Amino acid sequence: HVIKTNFQDFRLRMLAGHNHWRLGNYDTAAIHFSKLFEISPEQPAAYTALASMYLEKGLASKAAALLKQGEGKLKAAGVRIPAHYFNLQARAALALNQYSEALRYLAASKAVFSAEQDKPEDKWHALTLEGRALLATGQFDKAVFALEWAASMAQEDPYCNNLLGVAYLQWAKTGSEREKQEKRDKARKAFDSVLASQAPESLKATVRKNLEKLTS
Hints:
Elements lengths: L9 H14 L2 H14 L5 H12 L3 H17 L6 H13 L3 H14 L7 H17 L3 H14 L4 H14 L5 H19 L5 H15 L1
Helix pairs in contact: 1-2, 2-3, 3-4, 3-5, 4-5, 5-6, 5-7, 6-7, 7-8, 7-9, 8-9, 9-10, 9-11, 10-11
């Protein structure tokens, strides 16, 4: 594949990058995506495209650095940073076990969210990621709150429901016997919804293991 050095159309560069990413041509995709923030550094998508690919490949440090650099440029240009951008920053922070940093980005995501300018899924993605961060820091009651809210917006999302089940399972270690049983029942309900969905078999296998913990 020949990369044209005078290929300055943002939309076509983005399309080329995604096509090569889909085909597994990561180096070529990175070249196209890297050109985006040269062509139009004031567009958030110039940074999120390459950062998303980095995250898929497990290169969280690279994604975090790129998004932080982009955040500075966007703020300097007075550009609104969308909720999706902060969600990606939170994903990178979570992958690096930087939970307080992730929660800071998610607070920013929820604060800037606009039904007119952001996608509906950006809000429940933020809540799901928040639930992950709160679970990791042992704040199980707050994790349940965030994940219940996310599940109410995306009832069919198996990953959210699995996290919700895990949050209830962990939270069930505290409280009275009646409260513990109520939490275990809610955990089972969340896990059962995953098993009844079209979730990948790998996720269902994880859920079955979690269900075993309810009876142990």
